[in-house]
Amino acid sequence: VLMLKMAKPPEVLIVIDEETGEVSRELQVDTAEVELYHKMREVMVYLTHLDQSNMEHIMLELLTQECLSDTTNGMMPSPQQPWNPARLNCLCWAMGSISGAMDEANEKRFVVTIIKDLLSLCEMKRGKENKAIVASCIMYVVGQYPRFLRAHWKFLKTVLLKLFEFMHETFPGVQKMACETFLKISQKCRKKFVQVQPAEAECFLAELTRPNGQLQGHTADLEFGDQQTFYEAVGYMIAEAPTQQEQYQYVDGLMSHLNAQWNHLLQAASQNEGILVDLNAMRQLSHFLRTNERVASSAGSAMEHQLGSIYQQVLRVYKYYSEGISSKVASNGPQIMGHSQIKGMRTFKRDTLKLVETFVEKAIPPDPHGPPGSQHQPAAGATGEIPETNGIPGGGRETQSSRRSELIQRVCSGLVPPLLEPVLADYRANHPQARDPEVLSLLSTLISKLSPSITPQVPRIFEMVFDPTLEMIKSDFQSYPDHRVNFYALLRACNTYCFDALFLLPEQRLRLFVDSLVWAIKHEHPSVADAGLRVLSDFLDKVLHLDPQLCGNFFKSYYQLLLHDIFVVLTDTLHKAGFKHQTIILMELVTAVDLGKLRGVTSKQEVMEYICNMLCQTFATLNRNQVEAFVLDLFNKSGNHTEFQSHIRDFLVQIKEYAGGDAEGLTELYRTERDEALQRSRQIEQQRLMEVPGLLHQYDPIRLAMDAANPQE
């Protein structure tokens, strides 16, 4: 019953209307059905573990009935039950759901039988709708058994050739599903494509990426979005090539056709600049950049040579569009931003920024030492020198660190200087509505990946983007939401990776930095307020580890301001969601005084008096003795965050800001405990899924991370 009533998995894009029988492409995901599928899949896995042979027998028997049913040959009816495509779909979803639950020997026999029967059925069926149904079943099933495909090269190659054939099928949804299945197989079986297999003259990737070879034929009928998915899939294969030189060659072969189209278009534009403002031309240019970005997301550093070959041309077009937008806005006003031509220009600019950001993000691995600021060292990082790596134990790790440093140096010298000049100048000079929030996102990535080499650029970055963005977002809490989120992500990156550079800023700009964090913690949107609280907490922790003189000078200017504003958000009714981080910041401020770190700035007695006076003035219903008792215990319990947080929670209930019928407020005060309980529940569930083979989905992020850490040949 379960097999023939199986819910549709989210990967399947071809659906059948149960009432009309019409076959179409699904445009929206039914979340209720997805949840039902996960529950049914779990039951199927457990049943398979109870009796593998019986499950295999039932499934294959039902599949045989479907393949032998009425109109199998498209011409002569047979006495069997009429063919029901909905039943075939459910059966294939059930067969795909038990991937990983069988041992390898049984799985091999099971999968071979399924695919052979489905391929035969696809050949015999007539009509685009019927072929599309069987094709979607084939693609779903093969995508669920990567372990089998890795172990059987000939079968894997046959499946890929069939996917390439489906990429020419014009029925809605088939091409997209074929490309996404190709992407999944590339992620799971990537090593097989760079190895020369038995009876093959060269590896599959070399054959696929040969200039003017098969690749253009495979992608000829695909839409732009599906082409980008195809190229991303090949990028995963390229990333597994054994040498950097081979990676560069494969990328050159992969991108040769698109590079030729790009060069042809720019050559025509050099004769007639009007081509660049043609809508079709702008779509082609954006498709070129997006395809490069998708390959960079999967191939990583292998895209370095390709990006270098087109970089100057891309920046020239970027500058041309920037000047065009500025000119149009100056002459027609900001309402021109809705014009299709201006939208096309902005799309190209955003795609350029996204391409560079993705390359830097994917090509440069994380720093094995962690963020420079985490060691609380003095401002030596501001010199731009790369830290010594000789102390890293293990030759492999030292080599990886050395390669990382070399790549950072190449990026800092080759990509960053020509990029910052047009991008920063354009951002500062443009009308607020013409400023791209992707600029801030790109800068965050550059700072997080290229520090400390990019540290000397931080003051200039602040000068060019900090003030203009602040002017856009400080007047209210609603305007420019994307800029607002990316702006605080930039502040977080500066604080985490270039903390020392913040104290090289002019005093006025450092004050604006702190004021920005204070504005953030007062923001009415929880995500922005949470970001501000996290950055401020980390910032204060690092300040307290500075030289005592620097630390004292800072807190002379900001201690009372920060203390006051933390109590403001703690005791109002708009920022309950940030209770945990609010108490962490308050505890840092209280502990610093209690431990004597701020001698010469203020004393414990002065701080206690200040808090008492502030609370008594704000809450007239409280008596002085009650407030003094709270403040005394505030210092007494500052060494234990759990006790400290509980003490503040009790006080907030007492002052009736959250009580008196505000049940939601009381709930928010216990958000931390609730979130921790949910996290423990998720960990227990994850452990349960990992203990039973097959329960963890093949493309679950945890499974993909495990495969990446332990790649299989």
Task: Outline the secondary-structure elements.
Blueprint: E1 14-16, E2 23-25, H1 31-50, H2 52-67, H3 85-97, H4 104-124, H5 128-143, H6 146-151, H7 153-166, H8 174-189, H9 204-208, H10 215-219, H11 224-238, H12 244-271, H13 279-299, H14 304-332, H15 340-363, H16 395-429, H17 438-450, H18 458-473, H19 481-497, H20 499-502, H21 507-521, H22 526-543, H23 548-571, H24 579-594, H25 604-618, H26 624-636, H27 641-654, H28 663-669, H29 671-691, H30 701-709
Antiparallel strand pairs: 1-2
Give an overview in words:
The chain has 713 residues and is mainly alpha-helical. It has 30 helices and two strands. The chain has helices at 31-50, 52-67, 85-97, 104-124, 128-143, 146-151, 153-166, 174-189, 204-208, 215-219, 224-238, 244-271, 279-299, 304-332, 340-363, 395-429, 438-450, 458-473, 481-497, 499-502, 507-521, 526-543, 548-571, 579-594, 604-618, 624-636, 641-654, 663-669, 671-691, 701-709, and strands at residues 14-16, 23-25. Strands 1-2 form a two-stranded antiparallel sheet. Helix 2 packs antiparallel against helix 3. The longest helix has 35 residues, at 395-429. Residues 70-80, 375-395 and 657-661 have low confidence and may be disordered.
Features:
713 residues, two-stranded antiparallel ribbon, 30 helices, 68% helix
**Rounded to an integer, what's the Rg over CA atoms?**
30 Å
Number of helices: 30
Q: What distance lies between the first and last C-alpha atoms, to the nearest angstrom?
A: 38 Å
User: What summary fits the major beta sheet?
Assistant: 2 strands, antiparallel
